[in-house]
Amino acid sequence: MKKYILNLTALSNGYFEVHEEGCTYGTRQKRERLGYHSTCASAVRMSKVIHPFKKINGCIYCSYACHTT
After folding, report:
1. What are the backbone dihedrals phi and psi of residue 43, each rounded to the nearest 5 degrees, phi first?
2. Which top-level group of life is the source organism from (predicted)?
């Protein structure tokens, strides 16, 4: 299982990204720890439950399977 975080700074397209902890594209500031998940899909789902009005996406580099835009 991998540890995931949510970047709380939106990208220019308005999306917030879920990253594996340690991803060089994830910020070390303004982030929320999501804990351990077996897949990025589980981490994205959890993020959407916590933040239902935010557009959330997986990082194209570390969570490509969950990257939708």
Report:
1. -65, -40
2. Bacteria
